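sry for the spam today, last one i promise. struct tokens for design, 254 residues
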């Protein structure tokens, strides 16, 4: 089950069939038009996304959630929470049903000062892989923020809980650039809250967040990050060689 904070609350659910139980509202992950819950379906935890009560009977918003389901249903990526169904749920209404994201949002990890080098590495690799996949499938979506990035509890694998709401025949340069800026904003906030300094990664993040920055595609950004990692490995290798040479010279002089 997803991490439950003191702000989240269980909601009574009347389902004589016994299919649905333990409905819990997750205010941390709510969206402008949607509420997000965890619930048990046949005893297994899943997440659901449903229209807020004030929008539930509006045909325009009902079309909107159906369109999002249609857009996301065929997406399949290891770092994107998978959609399973679109069902009528007692007390909630029509809802998108997804795998349960058992873990913690990046927002919570930032606020609780629980960031680790592994999380930074996951952002550099898994987040960009997911963004590349989204762009390859021409998905137009809301900005990616720390609120929609989840890290699983045991392995700290990254999952996006909300990736898109519409499909386009072709993304514009601005659409792809917006993703780059989102990455830059997320990474800069993470670096602001790390206890250590990573100057090379900071330079890349600032360039990514800059609307006039040099990265036009996710591939450009991935290449810059790969060069940074290769440079770090090269420096460590040189240091290792120097230390080993010094040791050999010392042994020869003994």
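last one done:
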């Amino acid at each position: 089950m997803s991490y439950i904070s003191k702000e989240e609350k269980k909601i009574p659910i009347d389902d004589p069939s016994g299919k649905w139980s333990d409905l819990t509202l997750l205010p941390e992950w709510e969206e402008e038009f949607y509420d997000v819950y965890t619930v048990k379906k046949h005893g297994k935890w899943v997440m659901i996304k449903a229209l807020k009560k004030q929008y539930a009977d509006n045909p325009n918003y009902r079309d909107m959630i159906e369109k999002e389901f249609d857009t996301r249903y065929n997406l399949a990526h290891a770092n994107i929470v998978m959609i399973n169904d679109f069902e009528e749920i007692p007390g909630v209404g029509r809802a998108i049903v997804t795998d349960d994201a058992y873990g913690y949002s990046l927002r919570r990890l930032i606020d609780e000062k629980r960031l680790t080098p592994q999380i930074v590495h996951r952002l550099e690799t898994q987040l960009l892989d997911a963004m590349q996949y989204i762009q390859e499938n021409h998905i137009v979506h809301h900005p990616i923020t720390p609120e929609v990035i989840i890290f699983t509890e045991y392995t700290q694998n990254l999952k996006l809980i909300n990736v898109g709401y519409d499909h386009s025949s072709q993304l514009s340069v601005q659409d792809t650039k917006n993703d780059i800026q989102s990455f830059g904003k997320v990474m800069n906030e993470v670096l602001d809250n790390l206890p250590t300094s990573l100057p090379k990664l900071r330079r890349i993040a600032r360039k990514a967040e800059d609307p006039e920055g040099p990265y036009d595609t996710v591939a450009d950004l991935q290449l810059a990050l790969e060069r940074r990692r290769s440079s770090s490995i090269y420096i460590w290798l040189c240091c290792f060689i120097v230390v080993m040479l010094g040791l050999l010279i010392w042994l020869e002089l003994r």
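The longest helix spans residues 218-253. ok im logging off now
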